[in-house]
Structures are given as structure tokens and as C-alpha cells.
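User: Let's play a game. I give you a shape written as C-alpha cells, and you guess the letters that built it. Ready? Here's round one.
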């Protein structure tokens, strides 16, 4: 019986190549896609994962939990990266990893895997969450794996592999950079935090929301009622 691995999957070049690479190494790969508000075609991503070799695909809607338990907490804590800029995409990583661990436990998987590079902070966010929630899970981090690095020295090698394996990709050798849309990077204006309520409410529900803007000056002097956004 093949060992199972739950892969945090986005449908992009890196994780698509990683999915196929894991399959070729003999793993049963369960792809997991987190919906945190990005404008992606999740049906297309599901179909792509299955065609690339995934045995099963989870598409998890984490938008409400993301807003109420993570974005609000970050706002109330004035969460900034090294005091320079507001946390954006980073806020979602622990939530994505948390649900990934839950799926691994449900599926009886021995491994979890992610596509974060070996030189950034995302690898730490994913792996600390794995370790905190289930230290028995083994982590596959291809961008720190000598075998993977020997095979894929850059995006050109990824693109060549994808083309060889028939994996549909939206990048090319002429334009190898992926255009990633993030859902939680907050623009700033001087000392104010300006977050459109329309975004937060649209993320939580499908209802119409008023065209207003939430302003928070540092430090935060009052709490925000979550019920105001429901």
C-alpha cells in the first residue's frame, strides 16, 4: 500500500510539478486547496490536480474562519512584519496548515507537503503549525530536498518538466513568473490601516455590503465587534 501525503496545492507551476514528482516517487497524493478569498477557478484546479495524479482533492472554504479568527486578530494586535509593513499573505499560512493537518489525520496520511521555498518565511509558518498540531506527521519540503533541487534548478526546469508530463501551466519560458493574487494584503496610508469593509464582508458572505472603510490608527484603542461584519 502506498504511503499517503497531503499536499497544500494551489494549481500553480510549483505545486503542480511537486504533485507529479511525489506521485512518481510512489506516494498517494491527496491535493488540498484552501479558499481564503482568492479569485480562482476551484473547479478547474480540482480537475487539474486529478489529471496530474492526485487520488483525491479537497477544496476547503476557509473564508469566514480566516476573517473572524485571523484577520480580525491581526488588526487588533497591530500585526506588522518587523515593524515595517502589515502582514498580508502570511496571516493565512497557519490556517492553511491547520486544515491540512486535520485532513491528514482524517485520511490517515503519514506525510504533509508544501511548496514553500527553502529561503523564505512561509516554510517556517507551515512547519511550525504542523509540529504544534501533530508532531508525528512527517514533512516533505521539496525545495529543501537535495534530490528535488538536483532535478529542478530553477523555473525553466519546472516548465520543461510540466511540458514533458503534459501538465497545463499558465507560464512560459519567456514569462516564467507566476501572477499570484493574494486576498489579504492590506494597503496602508500613513499611520492608518484602511481595509474596505466590502472586502471583509464579501469574504464572509455573499450578501451586499455598504461602501464604507474601516480606519484603525496605531495603537488600536478599541475592539471591533465581529457581529458588525455578519
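Assistant: Ready! My guess for every position:
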Amino acid at each position: 500500500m502506498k504511503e499517503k501525503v497531503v499536499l497544500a496545492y494551489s494549481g500553480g507551476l510549483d505545486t503542480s510539478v511537486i504533485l507529479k514528482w511525489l506521485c512518481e516517487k510512489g506516494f498517494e497524493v491527496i491535493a488540498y486547496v484552501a479558499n481564503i478569498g482568492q479569485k480562482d477557478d476551484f473547479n478547474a484546479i480540482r480537475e487539474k490536480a486529478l489529471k496530474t495524479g492526485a487520488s483525491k482533492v479537497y477544496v476547503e472554504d476557509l473564508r469566514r474562519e480566516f476573517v473572524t479568527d485571523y484577520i480580525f486578530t491581526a488588526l487588533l494586535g497591530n500585526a506588522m512584519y518587523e515593524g515595517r509593513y502589515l502582514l498580508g499573505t502570511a496571516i493565512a499560512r497557519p490556517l492553511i496548515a491547520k486544515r491540512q493537518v486535520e485532513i491528514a489525520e482524517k485520511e490517515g496520511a503519514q506525510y504533509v507537503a508544501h511548496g514553500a521555498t527553502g529561503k523564505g518565511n512561509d516554510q517556517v509558518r507551515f512547519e511550525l503549525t504542523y509540529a504544534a498540531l501533530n508532531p508525528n506527521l512527517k514533512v516533505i519540503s521539496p525545495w529543501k530536498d537535495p534530490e528535488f533541487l538536483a532535478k529542478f534548478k530553477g523555473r525553466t526546469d519546472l516548465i520543461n518538466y510540466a511540458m514533458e508530463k503534459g501538465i497545463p501551466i499558465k507560464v512560459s519560458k519567456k514569462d516564467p513568473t507566476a501572477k499570484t493574487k493574494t486576498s489579504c494584503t492590506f494597503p496602508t496610508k500613513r499611520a492608518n490601516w484602511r481595509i474596505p469593509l466590502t472586502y471583509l464582508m464579501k469574504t464572509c458572505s455573499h450578501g451586499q455590503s455598504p461602501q464604507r472603510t474601516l480606519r484603525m490608527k496605531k495603537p488600536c484603542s478599541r475592539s471591533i465587534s465581529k457581529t458588525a461584519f455578519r
